[in-house]
Amino acid sequence: MTYQANDKQFDNFSEAIKYANTIKCDIIEIANGKTRWTPAPPVSAKRIRDYNNRKAAYEAQQRMLASR
């Protein structure tokens, strides 16, 4: 199959992802025009901090329940 990322064509999907990830564009399959890959949105520092805090609280709760 042939893929397109920002008007550049690729035969290899992994090569197309490497290229598209550097310039933050979508990969489209040329045969049917469908989008096959979209870069992930950036994750904010607050979201990472909130995740880590929830994870630590859950682990502490599990340790407390296990020690009963």
What would you say this structure looks like, in words?
- By secondary structure, the protein is of the alpha+beta class.
- Helices cover 49% and strands 18% of the residues.
- It is built from two helices and four strands; from the N terminus they run ββαββα.
- It has a four-stranded antiparallel beta sheet, covered by helices on one side.
- β3 (27-29) and β4 form a beta hairpin.
- The longest helix is centred in the C-terminal third of the chain and has 22 residues, at 45-66.
- The radius of gyration is 20 Å and the shape is elongated.
- The N and C termini lie far apart (58 Å).
- The mean pLDDT is 93.
How many DSSP E strands?
Answer: 4
Strand order of the largest sheet: 2-1-3-4
The percent range for strand residues is 15-25%
Kindly state the percentage of residues in helix: 40-55%
Helices and strands, in N-to-C order? EEHEEH
Whole-angstrom Rg: 20 Å
Set down the secondary structure blueprint.
Blueprint: E1 3-5, E2 8-10, H1 13-23, E3 27-29, E4 35-37, H2 45-66
Antiparallel strand pairs: 1-2, 1-3, 3-4
What are the salient characteristics of this protein?
alpha+beta; elongated; 49% helix; single chain; 68 residues
Explain briefly what this protein structure is.
The chain is an alpha+beta fold and 68 residues long. Helices cover 49% and strands 18% of the residues.
